[in-house]
Amino acid sequence: MAKKKIGSLKLQVKAGQANPSPPVGPALGQRGINIMEFCKAFNARTQEMETGAPTPVVITYYQDKSFTMDIKTPPASYYLKKAAKVTSGSKTTGRSNVGSVSLKQVREIAEAKMKDLNATDVESAMKIIVGSAASMGIEVK
Question: What are the residue boundaries of the Large ribosomal subunit protein uL11 C-terminal domain, all occurrences included (predicted)?
């Protein structure tokens, strides 16, 4: 008999640092998902990623209280802030820049995010990353 899907849930958890404390525990607990099982599985699957990187995860849960998870790559803004060595984006986007990244760095970010972006090739993925940089107040040189 096939598993009956109840719903899905999107969370952003730090790679390798999932624990039952809020917001992870309550979000999973109210849906009947085994919290410790999720934490162990998530930490095992993200151990090769950079520890502490914000990692989006889509959890699909079923009637028999089992679940599957689809782990995405960290957001483009995380990579851009890291490459530009800034802690946050510009408060006045379009008027002031907080940092800059090179085209080489943009290409590396686009290649890392390729599977999660709606792009067919690296050049179009780079355009998406350049747009994200512009909206954050990060200049591309």
Answer: 72-140
76-140 topology per CATH: Arc Repressor Mutant, subunit A (1.10.10)
pLDDT tens-digit readout, 4-45: 777 888 888 888 787 887 778 888 888 888 888 888 888 888
